[in-house]
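Sequence and structure are no longer studied apart. As an example, we show below a sequence and the tokens encoding its fold:
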Amino acid sequence: MKILLIDNIENQLLDLKQELLKSRAKFAHVTGLHAAVSALSQHQFNIVVCAAQIDDSDGRSVLEMMAKKFPKIVRILIDADDKASQGIAHYCFALPIESKVIINTISKLAGNNQAITKDIIVKTVANIKTLPSPPKVYMQLNAVLKEANTDSSKIAQIIQQDPALTAKVLQFSNNTFATTGKPMMSISDAITKMGLDTLCCIVMTAELFSYNPKIKDFSILDEQLHSLATAKLAASMVKAELKQDAMIAGLLHDLGKVVLFEVNEKSTALFFKHRIKDGNNMALENKIFAIDHCHVGGYLLHTWGFSYQIIEAIILHHRADKLKQKNFGIAQAVYLANILIHKQTPDPEFIAHYKLAGVLDALTQRAAKLI
């Protein structure tokens, strides 16, 4: 992995430079925007760490420009507010810099970055005429929910800025959570009846599938319902501080299918002819498309600036063998939730490794209620 440090005249990244020297990592350290552009045009970097302010530009603007010209690069921002970069940087670290934490993060994401930025994946995504758009309203909600003084009226105001999205959220909410009582007529009703977590999930699904691709034999509604159920089940398996990211990963775990099935109409028709419904069709995807929905989805989230903790869950949600190498967390929860929602049998070694035999029946029953 080659790292570029884009520093300013205050040398905010000097401590990080010293730690990288000790670790013998391959890196370059430049000061100013002109030097950064020159370095990027002459060398291939995998990761860029950018200071909060570069010359007359803030670091977020620099990374935004970089995302368009160098989409493969992992973007890390150093800023006063570590939540200020959503949708721009993959990671944001607050000042003062904790160099060892940053280096540890970089070392963990290296393998996944290489897996999702292969040329065939990048070219495939680039050639799709219509792609899902980043869930901007959801990202706004996500930021507001982290504030201490958040209330339901503030949430409702954000969603209602987009009338079309509001209508879709209410339609999906009423169709999915139909009751014998009155239908939900407003976002405030939806918050009261479903709670903020579920409502935010529905906002994301409504945004992601708003362009409604026409793919023969593929139901967007079924995909939405499966993703929502997976998200809720995955969130129930993890610690409180991981629930929000588990929900996001569950909602996004199959996003790559929507892109993959628009690559080639004939290839997609061949896939649906031979697929096993509700089964593991990864081998078939790789045979027909030469790639799979996990890595396509992972790269799409990379371009949108999602953290690699969530991207890892998307890439590995069919790889129980690789998941066993780490502690039980978001990725493991999404794998298990997806399996149970599909009414499949989890990998026995996975269950044994995480000592889940005693709770498997309860999780299976919980999944059945969500289907």
